[in-house]
Write a structure and sequence with these properties.
Blueprint: H1 3-25, E1 51-56, H2 66-81, E2 85-90, H3 97-108, E3 113-116, H4 122-131, E4 136-140, E5 149-154, H5 156-170, E6 175-180, H6 185-201, E7 206-211, H7 218-230, E8 235-238, H8 244-251, E9 255-260, E10 271-277, H9 280-291, E11 299-302, E12 309-312, H10 320-335, E13 345-346, E14 352-354, H11 362-365
Parallel strand pairs: 1-2, 1-3, 3-4, 4-5, 5-11, 6-7, 6-8, 8-9, 9-10
Antiparallel strand pairs: 10-12, 13-14
Helix pairs in contact: 2-9, 3-4, 5-6, 5-10, 7-8
Length: 385
């Protein structure tokens, strides 16, 4: 430092002191040092894309029946997983070439998990699954699988059996009527189980069936129900998707049972109980498998034990003894101590289809093509045993 710089420093310091004193006298604070700029905020890292899930429904969602029950299951998985999933559905998809077109469209939209909710979609789903190995397909009520397609079903025959117990206790004519959809093993199993349940409380029971050969056709279901009533049936059951059967019973002063969902609102005077199916537990399980990378092909068949099947809204005039017996059967189905299909069970010709103490396995149940004793008529295209 030069002599000149050394001599200037005291003067500069004095000047700064005078300036500070002057500002203080004016009531002003000297300016504060400028604050350091804040670091730029970093944008949060984007989260994973939601799993896109799609459903193909055979009927309209409506507010009752098979498709309504499936859509309740879809909503249950949305509540369970929140923004980790994004779901959509297409309703009223025919069991025809249209099914393949819809399924291909859903796969092309980026859905990675696709549920097809009707038996008639099986072959179409197999073809589409072959061409979209990156997508996982789930087929309801079917029996064919592939590397990226598996099947699931509900043991609806358990609900049918409990409904039959109530029908058998409440009939006065000892004649029950069933509106059948399509004569496949699933439906025949339900008709037979309904009859076995009714006969467990009333051995005099006879069951009559009218087939409509469709899953959802309210006009045909109404016509079939009317035919059964004119034929002497005073309690009606169904394996169809609409509430037309219960409505018909209400209009004609008969009794009926709801199917797949609680249908009591459609015929409060006619309604005896509803055999319901809860798809939520399975849809949540399947979605979790996909999210966690644990999805594998296979077959699932869930019932009362897994919380998938129940009997609800039992009418007040059903005897307490019958309600207690139904509850006992429900508990037995849940813990495995009760078997619906345990011999001796007879076919229409009086010969055993299950010998005494023999319990049917799922292979037997999945291939039923006959009526048990007490069901009148012939199975369309089936065997008479």
């Amino acid at each position: 430092m030069t002599d000149l710089q050394k001599r200037s420093m005291p003067k500069l310091a004095a000047l700064f002191a005078v300036a500070a004193a002057t500002l203080a006298g004016c009531g002003k604070e000297p300016p504060a040092p400028a604050a350091a700029p804040a670091p730029a905020a970093q944008a949060p890292a984007p989260g994973p894309e939601p799993l896109k899930i799609a459903f193909a429904y055979v009927g309209p969602v409506g507010d009752g029946g098979w498709t309504f029950a499936h859509d309740n299951g879809r909503q249950a998985l949305e509540r369970e997983f929140g923004d980790r999933v994004s779901t959509s559905f297409v309703e009223s998809v025919p069991e025809s070439a249209d099914a393949e077109r819809v399924l291909r469209d859903l796969a092309s939209q980026g859905n990675k998990l696709i549920f097809g909710t009707s038996f008639g979609y099986m072959e179409a789903m197999l073809k589409v699954a072959q061409d979209h190995r990156e997508v996982r397909f789930e087929h309801a009520t079917g029996y064919k699988t592939s590397e990226n397609m598996r099947t699931y079903d509900g043991r609806t025959y358990e609900g049918a059996y409990m409904a039959g117990m109530i029908a058998g206790a409440m009939t006065r004519s000892n004649t029950l009527g069933v509106v059948g959809s399509v004569p496949i093993p699933e439906v025949l199993r339900n008709i037979n189980s309904f009859t076995l349940g009714a006969q467990s409380v009333n051995p005099k029971i006879k069951t009559r069936v009218v087939w409509v050969n469709e899953w959802f056709s309210p006009p045909k279901e109404t016509e079939a129900a009317t035919t059964l009533i004119h034929g002497g049936a005073d309690v009606l059951f169904q394996n169809t998707d609409s509430a037309a059967v219960l409505k018909t019973a209400q209009e004609k002063g008969k009794r009926a049972l709801g199917w797949d969902s609680d249908m009591s609102a459609y015929g409060p005077d006619a309604h005896l109980a509803s055999a319901v199916i809860n798809w939520g537990p399975y849809y949540i399980r399947a979605t979790r498998d996909a999210l966690d990378g644990r999805w594998t092909t296979g077959q699932s068949w869930w019932g009362v034990k897994e919380g998938a099947i129940d009997i609800v809204s039992i009418a007040k005039d059903v005897p307490a003894e019958t309600k207690a017996r139904v509850e006992e059967v429900k508990k037995g189905l849940a813990d495995g101590s009760f078997q619906i299909w345990k011999g001796p069970i007879l076919g229409q010709n009086g010969k055993p289809v299950l010998e005494k103490d023999t319990v049917a396995d799922d292979t037997f149940l999945g291939a039923i093509n006959f009526y048990v004793k007490g069901v009148e008529g012939r199975v369309p295209g089936g065997d008479k045993k």
